[in-house]
Amino acid sequence: MGYRSREVGSPVMVRLWRRDLPRWGFLALVAAIYLYMFLPIAVVVLTSLNPGQYLRLPPPGLSLRWYAAALAPEWLEPFRISLVLAATTAVAASLLGLPAALALVRHRFPGREALNALLLSPLSLPAIVSGVAILQFLSLMGLRGLIGFPALLLAHTALTVPYAIRTIAISLHGFDRSLELAAMNLGATPWRTFRYVTLPLIKPGLFAGMVFAFIVSFNNVPVSLFLVRPGMVTLPIRILNYLEYRFDPSLAAVNMLSLLVVLVIVAAAERTAGFTRFVYAR
After folding, report:
1. 117: exposed, middle or buried (C-beta count within 10 Å: 0-12, 13-18, 19+)?
2. How high is the pLDDT of residue 128?
């Protein structure tokens, strides 16, 4: 049996586990994995419902007072900035990743592999190194005035374009190009073929890349730490600053609201493009 068939999470590996383990052992293993994944979230939920001033587990009661505190202006403005930044980053990363993926998948040219490695290189660098490098670049170019939203958008887009390229490229690898040829044989122009044939068929990969870019941007700390300015602070940086002076259940409430927003966006993307079927199919 080849090496790839034994990758963790592959159907073959799951079948081997089920064959070698008794049924109760397999169920216990699955339960342990899910417990490891969701127990921290359960702790955050209980903490956010704590009625007292300090963190206590289990909480002596249940209260929504900290959710009211999480909706104060000191949290809503950073939340709005992060939401707008992440949404803009997701769109920008997809617009840049789409032509790059088309070029890398459908064309053979000198330096193709080097270009592919260059476009994916942001994933190989520690995020904090990228943040320092971008800050130094802006300083050397005399563009410190861009510090704030423009710099954050440029940096987050650079970090998330690889996700868009990879997901769109996967969709293109499984694309039947005879459908495009059929459309052009029927008189469709290249643009109409792309708009009405290619784009709808690669939509799951496009939306998957947008969701990945949104989540990475929305939760980014290392890069944002160097590029924010007073009055233009993202939610993760606001949480980090808050932790320097206070530590109360309002942080848990803020995180739960953030998680809820991400879940709503993922559900909307799934309803629109069915991108989870794309993920599981790969």
Report:
1. exposed
2. 84
